[in-house]
């Protein structure tokens, strides 16, 4: 069964697009899974990163906003390799709210779900990179997701944003009763910082066992990957990748456990 996961937070610059890209990369390379990456952010960071990493031009037949208007969303999809496809981001997606406003109120949260429901079945994992807001596009992403992974930095304002985001997710359950919090992944700004430690405690108190044990640390390698694409053979590549491999393995274990918890029908 397809698992649809949104990588989210109100807060910008916390590593959402980076984790989405690296998890997509690893689901292919280490786990041989079929993955669809969906870039809902007009900044198009995920699409740019994927193009750099896989060195593909990856021009879709139609831009995403046009494909949505034409109800042919598959035309915005490109093949990256045997396992990974990408719904390419589009800066014109800024027009999505006006487009959705023309629909009946009860359909406005479900346009992305409706347009993608046939294509998502082709994948084992669908990873959605969201923009740092809870606009109607994010609502659409959350309404079609089975899980949300909150990506958070160990900074106080990121904690507050995560707290608000959690409340927003519980409100979104009205529109998607299958929605579950997969976990909170912390991006540690400063390993030795006392504020970081305090914020980690705040996360542990609020989210308890939903906080992932794996932590993402600040790494020069990740910044370089952001610039040139992911590499695997340079110094520190393996060590840095291990941090994300551990996080992904923990996420996969959580997903497996959730499957076991679901009563058989
Ligand atoms: N582990 C890390 N170590 C160092 N830099 C990182 C790490 N993860 C992400 N970054 C850098 O932090 C910046 C923000 O990351 P990213 O774009 O993934 O965040 P985001 O949450 O998607 O941002 P936005 O909210 O704007 O979409 C990027 O320059 C990225 O290269
Ligand atoms: Mg981003």
Number of strands: 8
| Gross morphology | globular
CATH architectural type? 3-Layer(aba) Sandwich
Q: How would you sum up the major sheet?
A: 8 strands, mixed
Summed up, what is this model?
The protein has 265 residues and is an alpha/beta fold.
List keywords for this structure.
265 residues, Rossmann fold, 10 helices, binds adenosine-5'-triphosphate, binds magnesium ion
Set out the fold topology:
Elements: E1 3-8, H1 16-29, E2 35-39, H2 45-54, H3 64-69, E3 77-79, E4 84-87, H4 96-101, H5 111-116, E5 125-129, H6 136-143, E6 147-153, H7 156-172, E7 180-188, H8 194-207, E8 211-217, H9 220-228, H10 237-261
Parallel strand pairs: 1-5, 1-6, 2-4, 2-5, 6-7, 7-8
Antiparallel strand pairs: 3-4
The protein binds adenosine-5'-triphosphate (ATP) and magnesium ion.
Residues 12-18, 41, 43, 45, 132, 187, 216, 218-219, 222-223, 226 line the site of adenosine-5'-triphosphate (ATP).
